[in-house]
Design goal:
By secondary structure, the protein is α+β, with helices and mostly antiparallel strands. Helix content is 26%, strand content 22%.
């Protein structure tokens, strides 16, 4: 394995120049300050060994482990939060014949809590509270997206002088199982359940945050030991020894650091508890920056002068030197000798011109080599193939559905072209399959929505849900199943599942029974199920009292959508008619006249061949013009 310092000066992905190793990283990770040569911006580059990535991926083959890790990074790259520092770029690279996965993040100028603690600094309870609230907000945002940070510790927390925090390291840990790839430093902030080979969870993030805040105030991490196993064993079943001396924040820190995950506060509850204490603590003082004396100040510092007695010199007799004498002498060569020298100079000039010409030809006539077929070849192998030609290799990346992740899609210039030694050859490397853009299908018909999603290569599941405001068969809403907060236009891997909610039409209401109720009561019954009552003309009713509902349409238990109309009529009581004049008429004429007004003839008495003498009902003699309930019978009396 190469030494970390040997990588200083290397260029990752033909873009990021490693400038200085940042000490304190895990054994499997090297952290460098670097410069993005394409933009000139300062960045941080983390190099993670391939063995570590494979171990986190349950010992998958290296290529599969790298692909799985990069999919994980893609899932967190779109996370945006003012406290979080997400990855800017990632990939895999080969440096000094060793393969690494690299992750690029912005370089934060603020100081880390680790640096403060290592310098013996401690925070006040007020300063720790402000930082804790920021970190709780960030973790709550991650946990809502179904992502656990997995590496909350002082080295990943950066603070400014106003006590505001930034949380780095997101995406670095991919849900580690147990302690397989955990460093001693990471174990200092690990929850006790990691001893059972669990993966990082929101609860373990909260535990790590509790330890981090406690250390910033006290300078100590409870139960920390010199080994992973002992540290985790010390924490099993034990409450954090949080002293009341640190002030009111002791209570929420203790609850967040309970040994059982189910007993701990969530990130949002932890943050709320800290917020409620803000009024009980003094305003936080600015965090003094870590300032060291500049080199220029050191070398220009005025030093106190020291006075000493002068030492007497011992005089020595001067040395007498004779003055030199000079003479001008002219030497004249014979003519034959002068001609010989002229020929010699001529020959030497011709030789010099020849040598110069050869040298110029060698510079101008640089060797050229044809570009070999590299499509489909892994980047590292392709570099080995062309390393002998002395070309300047430029690497760019794009996505491809046909070429595997990390392999060459094409070269520029293309295959068969010739490139001179020292010339540029661009390798276009596959970043994996092309991404799908999630369309907004809200309001589309079900079939159109499915077609739009499948056209992007997305998997579709659907749910039918009654909706009063969206027409039947149209999409009420949608979510990306694994990342519910992603907006339309986001890029995701093809095959990602999108759930659509399709309207089943309005929610139907059962029509209540209104017959026999007062109008006020009937309207209240309808309003309770979001139906509308409409009063029609009053009707006669024998059974229903006057003023009560006598009829309704539709009938009881019929199904109507919201705001459906139910018509009803109030009772006018029984219908009556005036008794017509039938006295003096024969039986046939009397029957006809009575039936015309809705009355029927009941019994007859006397000689029916004669004329009607009187009309009775229920033993009472009725007179012409008297009101009689329609539909009833009357009796005719003959002489």
């Amino acid at each position: 394995m190469i030494e970390r310092d040997e990588l200083t000066g290397a260029v990752v992905a033909a873009r990021y120049r490693l400038e200085g190793l940042i000490r304190g990283g895990a054994d499997s990770t090297s952290v460098f300050s670097a410069t993005d040569t394409s933009s000139g911006h300062p960045v941080i580059v983390r190099l993670i060994t391939l063995e570590s990535v494979a171990a986190e991926a349950d010992a998958l083959p290296p290529d599969h482990a790298v692909e799985a890790f990069q999919r994980h990074l893609l899932s967190v790259a779109g996370i945006s939060h003012p406290v979080l520092v997400p990855p800017l770029d990632w990939g895999d690279t080969t440096l000094r014949n060793e393969r690494f996965v690299f992750i690029v993040t912005e370089r934060i100028d603020d100081v880390s809590l680790r640096e403060l603690l290592d310098r013996g600094r401690r925070l006040t309870s007020s300063q720790a509270l402000v930082i804790g609230i920021d970190l709780c907000r960030a973790l709550h945002h991650l946990h809502q997206l179904g992502v656990a940070h997995g590496d909350v510790r002082p080295a990943n927390v950066f603070v400014s002088t106003d006590s505001r925090a930034r949380l780095a390291g997101i995406g670095i840990k991919r849900g580690i199982g147990g302690t397989a790839t955990m460093s001693i430093e990471q174990a200092r902030y690990a929850a006790p359940e990691f001893s059972l080979d669990v993966v990082s969870t929101p609860e373990s993030d909260v535990y790590a945050l509790a330890l981090t805040l406690l250390e910033t105030v006290t300078g100590e991490v409870p139960f920390a030991a010199d080994s992973l196993a002992v540290t985790l064993a010390n924490r099993a079943g034990k409450l954090l020894p949080v002293s009341a001396d640190i002030g009111p924040i002791a209570v929420p820190i203790e609850k967040a650091g309970r040994p059982e995950p189910g007993d701990r506060s969530s990130a949002i509850d932890f943050g709320r508890a800290l917020t409620q204490l803000a009024g009980k603590l003094p305003l936080p003082e600015p965090i003094a920056p870590l300032v060291t004396e500049a080199f220029r100040d050191t070398i220009t510092r005025q030093l106190e002068a020291v006075t000493t007695e002068p030492v007497a010199k011992v005089s020595e007799p001067p040395v007498q030197v004779a003055a030199p004498t000079t003479a001008d002498v002219a030497v004249i060569a014979p003519p034959a000798e002068r001609r010989r020298y002229r020929w010699l100079w001529t020959i030497m000039a011709v030789v010099a011109i020849g040598v110069s010409a050869v040298l110029v030809w060698q510079v101008v006539d640089v060797a050229s080599y044809p570009v070999p077929e590299l499509a489909g070849v892994a980047e590292g192998e392709a570099r080995n193939i062309i390393s002998q030609f002395g070309w300047n290799i430029v690497v760019t990346a794009e996505r491809s559905d046909d070429v595997a992740l990390g392999s060459v899609i094409r070269s520029v210039p293309p295959v068969g072209s010739t490139v001179k030694e020292g010339g540029d050859l661009t390798l276009v490397i596959s970043e994996g399959p092309t991404l799908a853009v999630v369309p907004d299908v809200t309001g589309l018909g079900r079939d159109d929505a499915v077609a739009a999603l499948e056209a992007q290569g997305l998997a579709v599941v659907e749910e039918i849900r009654d909706d009063d405001s969206v027409p039947l068969g149209r999409v009420v809403g949608w979510i990306v199943t694994e990342q519910p907060n992603l907006p339309a236009g986001s890029e995701v891997l093809k095959g990602t599942q999108v759930a659509i909610i399709v309207s089943g039409g309005p929610v139907l209401r059962a029509v209540p029974n209104l017959v026999g109720r007062s109008e006020t009561d009937a309207q209240a019954q309808l309003a309770a199920v979001q139906l509308v009552g409409q009063r029609n003309d009053d009707v006669f009713s024998i059974e229903i009292e006057v003023g009560l509902v006598a009829a309704q349409d539709p009938q009881t238990n019929s199904q109507l959508a919201r705001n459906g109309v139910v018509a009803y009529s109030l009772s006018k009581g029984p219908e009556t008619v005036e008794l017509p004049t039938v006295v003096g008429l024969g039986l046939t004429d009397a029957k006809k006249r009575l039936e015309e007004v809705g009355l029927a003839v009941g019994t007859t008495s006397g000689r029916t061949s004669g004329k009607v003498r009187s009309v009775t009902q229920d033993g009472v003699t009725l007179k012409a013009g008297e009101l009689v309930r329609k539909g009833t019978t009357v009796n005719l009396v003959f002489p």
